[in-house]
Design brief:
Number of helices: 33
CATH topology of the domain at 505-639: Serine Threonine Protein Phosphatase 5, Tetratricopeptide repeat
Shape: globular
Largest sheet: none
Helix content: over 70%
CATH architecture of the domain at 505-639: Alpha Horseshoe
Radius of gyration: 29 Å
Strand content: under 5%
CATH class of the domain at 505-639: Mainly Alpha
């Protein structure tokens, strides 16, 4: 009572009797015989209580081996995984163990695949023995339709294919219950039951590890499930399960940049969709599949295809779509619109996704953090740089709280925040925050992925940009590059370029970006001819892929103009390039865009050098007007307001497909996607 009174005095919420009992029990755990027997009985506790015990154990370093032994038991982990309210606690347990070198993710993957293969081998032996001794053996039983139907009903009630709205559950169950109307000759009832149980658990476990950031283990499990599904008799419900498995697998492969295997998964999914009538596929599952198609192409920087599939996914949203799926569809479509510079639609989608994620999942959920990263990406691209830094910081904090410090998702958040800081601090020259976060990202990546991994190359590219700017500031102040920062930057840029060429080839946006980065670096290093060659390569590739008026094209044109203006004294060429860059910026962002400053200053320098004072005065005045607009920033604040109210999905779709932009109509693009599957 005294301790409780002290807690109240200090403003703390006193522990409940349950929490005190939990603390007492876990604090007394050790490796004596009596305790071990008690721990073995934990599995019989309700899932909610059991997860609380495990979460408490994860905070004690000396109990982590005991906790690992508990959680690698697939029957225990499966029971917890099926109880969604404890998912966040499972994340914390996994994070705690992995950060201490207790490889729970890998052991779960190995145990799952071993159990599956052992059962499969045992079944093959049973079948062979039965056939060889057919005259004396008991005839094979045909699978019980009622048992299979019941299993499928339960399975689909627990998977993401089914709708979550209460008023839809009855009809969804009715559809599932008529799925299997086939006798499976020479298939043991026990084998099929095991197969369905293993498939359901495999889908859940694979997705859980993907969400937790352990993508390689997720891929192994989902590939195992995909193999099992291919070997089972063709049937409507099993085909739906196979499609669901493939889209989950594609997500993990694309996120980890395993593009060769992702391409195979994509091809298998498209083939299955062509063979299987899409009228039989729930629209929510189709939305998920097409969103993963879009995400794969986005990761490969093939933005036209990414944009097309995201629009096809938008077509399949409906009011009954589960919120988790709806948020993911909106997020991915927003990103695809951003890279196509379709900012009005992107704003509609990402603001709704952010609003929904916070409302449905809460401000500390990983789904909200995922959405914040995409919102930060949008803000950065519409020139709201300071706001993007704030959003990225919030996303990083949430991910660190859930996943700890050594995690793939945390590394991505560090890299995104670092780049936002780099853009924000570009005018000040203070890159300390940006450098701190990118070095954390690289440190985590080097721990998690091979040295030649593309994700590591991405983080090193950001570090190269930072080192170049730090060295440039030192040189501008009359100092010297004593630390060899420019040489380090060149090594990092070449490392990233080499991997991009191996992965994507020459004609790819990412490859072009690396050429452009090297062009800027060589300009800093006074290697002007090499810089010119790199910029020209970047401009050609970007123009061929993105068209003459894309932001990326304007960026590279501006860099080449700077090279001609300040170093190569090609003033007429510089003037022409500056005017092209300004035209692109005005088309995309309007008169208050931050990047216009460099083009206006460059033009003023050109005209002053050539003594064309009338033109000089013209652009000096335009620059002054820009500074006033930039200070007010009226256009950006008015145009890109965050959502304050939730719209229905039908309203979002109506606005999206009827919004006027300079791009090809969304309906036309969606039809192109549909034609791909016919």
């Amino acid at each position: 009572m005294v301790e409780m009174a002290q807690d109240i005095t200090k403003g703390k919420t006193p522990e409940s009797l349950y929490e005190q009992c939990l603390d007492c029990y876990v604090a007394k755990l050790n490796y004596n015989v009596q305790t071990l027997d008690s721990v073995q009985q934990l599995r019989y506790l309700p899932a909610g209580v059991l997860s609380d015990v495990y979460a408490m154990m994860s905070t004690y370093e000396e109990l982590k081996d005991m906790l690992l032994e508990q959680l690698i038991d697939l029957s225990i982990f499966e029971r917890l995984l099926r109880f969604d309210p404890v998912r966040q606690k499972l994340f914390r347990c996994l994070t705690s163990l992995m950060s201490s070198g207790k490889l729970l993710s890998t052991q779960l993957q190995q145990n799952f695949t071993m159990r599956y293969h052992q059962k499969q081998d045992s079944t093959k032996f049973t079948k062979t023995a039965t056939k060889e001794h057919n005259s004396s053996a008991i005839p094979l039983r045909k699978a019980s339709k009622s048992r299979i139907t019941s299993t499928m009903v339960d399975l689909f009630a627990n998977t993401s294919i089914s709708r979550t709205n209460d008023d839809k559950k009855t009809s969804e169950t009715a559809e599932s219950s008529i799925a299997i109307d086939v006798d499976f000759d020479e298939v043991l009832d026990d084998e099929l039951h095991f197969g369905l149980d293993a498939i359901d658990f495999g889908l859940r476990l694979g997705s859980f590890l993907s969400e937790a950031g352990w993508l390689a283990d997720s891929i192994e499990i989902l590939q195992c499930v995909a193999v099992k599904l291919r070997s089972m008799p063709a049937d409507k419900q099993l085909t739906l399960l196979r499609l669901d498995c493939l889209q989950r697998l594609l997500h993990s492969e694309s996120t980890l940049y395993n593009f060769k295997s992702a391409e195979r998964t994509f091809d298998e999914t498209v083939k299955l969709l062509k063979e299987f009538s899409q009228d039989n596929v729930p629209r929510s599952l189709l939305a998920k599949i097409y969103t993963q198609f879009s995400a794969m192409y986005f990761a490969r920087s093939e933005y036209d295809n990414s944009h097309m599939w995201s629009i096809v996914a938008m077509r399949h949203l409906e009011e009954s779509t589960p919120e988790r799926i709806a948020v993911d569809v909106l997020r991915q479509a927003a990103k695809a619109c951003v890279v196509k510079r379709d900012f009005q639609r992107a704003n509609l989608l990402i603001s709704q996704a952010t609003y929904r994620a916070r409302k449905v999942f809460g401000a500390k959920h990983q789904k909200y953090a995922d959405t914040l990263l995409d919102y930060g990406f949008f803000l950065l691209n519409v020139d709201s740089v300071y706001q993007s830094v704030i959003v990225y910081k919030d996303a990083l904090d949430i991910r660190c709280n859930i996943f700890g410090n050594r995690n793939f998702h945390v590394a991505i958040a560090h890299e995104d925040l670092s780049y936002a800081y780099y853009v924000h601090e570009y005018s000040t020259g203070n890159f300390s925050c940006a450098r701190k976060h990118v070095e954390k990202a690289i440190d985590i990546m080097e721990y998690l992925v091979p040295k030649n991994h593309l994700m590591l190359a991405s983080a090193k590219r950001v570090k190269a940009l930072l080192l170049e700017e730090i060295a440039l500031d030192k040189l501008a102040e009359g100092g010297a590059d004593e630390d060899g920062l420019l040489r380090q930057s060149e090594e990092l840029h070449n490392f990233a370029l080499k991997l991009s060429l191996e992965m994507f080839g020459e004609v790819n946006v990412q490859t072009a970006k690396h050429y452009g980065n090297l062009g800027r670096l060589y300009q800093t290093m006074n290697r002007f001819e090499e810089a010119e060659r790199m910029h020209l390569k970047a401009i050609k590739i970007k123009t061929d892929l993105l068209g003459p008026y894309d932001y990326e094209v304007g960026l590279s044109i501006g860099h080449l103009a700077s090279l001609y203006n300040y170093h190569m004294k090609k003033y007429r060429e510089a003037e022409s390039l500056y005017l092209r860059s300004i035209d692109i910026s005005l088309r995309l962002f309007g008169k208050s865009y931050s990047g216009l400053e460099y083009d206006y200053l460059g033009l003023c320098h050109v005209y002053e050098t050539r003594h064309e004072f009338e033109k000089y005065l013209k652009y000096a005045t335009i620059l002054e007007n820009w500074q006033v607009l930039r200070g007010q920033n009226v256009d950006m604040n008015k145009t890109y307001a965050a959502a304050s109210d939730e719209c229905s999905l039908e309203d979002v779709k109506y606005k999206f497909f009827n919004m006027c932009t300079h791009n090809l109509s969304a309906s036309t693009i969606a039809n192109e996607g549909a034609d791909t599957l016919n």
